[in-house]
Amino acid sequence: DRIACPFAYLEPANPFQTQKVTFTVKDGEAKPIAKARVNLNGSILYTEADGTVIFHLREGVYPAKISKKGYGTITETVAVTNAAVSKDVVLTSTSAPVDSSAPDPAPGNADEEAE
């Protein structure tokens, strides 16, 4: 007796298909950026050590925001059709380069050197 069945599983007539969307995030020197935040239409993933992250999306147009502390933020639009999509993103550093070979100023002497 299936009349009292509380639910029924229906197979979709046309199953949806997803496409692979790969972001590759690098810095200005073409070095991969690990742990960059990729927000794609509200889904947030972080890049791997090689600077890549992969989403699987249905056909459509999606907003993307890529960011990492110490770098600028990039906003893009990703159009997914019937093929895989690859997006290369270059983040620009927002911090000044640090010269690790320069000595630290001695405490209390910084004002004297400026005079």
What distinguishing features does this structure have?
mainly beta, 4-stranded antiparallel β-sheet, 4% helix, disordered C terminus, 1 helix, 3-stranded mixed β-sheet
Detailed description of the structure:
The protein is mainly β and 115 residues long. It is built from 1 helix and 7 strands; from the N terminus they run βββββββα. The strands form 2 sheets. It has a 4-stranded antiparallel β-sheet, with no helix packed on it. A hairpin with a 6-residue loop joins strand 5 and strand 6. The chain is elongated and about 65 Å long. The N and C termini lie far apart (95 Å). The C terminus is likely disordered.
Give a quick precis of the structure.
This protein has about 120 residues and is mainly beta. It contains one helix and seven strands.
Write the layout of secondary structure elements.
Blueprint: E1 19-26, E2 37-40, E3 43-46, E4 52-57, E5 60-67, E6 74-80, E7 85-90, H1 110-114
Q: Tally the beta strands.
A: 7
Report, as a whole number of angstroms, the end-to-end distance.
95 Å
Structural class from helices and strands? mainly beta
In what range is the share of β-strand residues?
A: 35-45%
Overall outline: elongated
Helix-strand string: EEEEEEEH
| Major beta-sheet overview | 4 strands, antiparallel
Question: What is the average per-residue confidence, as pLDDT, rounded to a whole number?
Answer: 82
Strand order of the largest sheet: 3-2-5-6
Helix content: under 10%
| Uncertain stretches of 5 or more adjacent residues | 98-102, 109-115
Radius of gyration: 24 Å
Helix count?
1
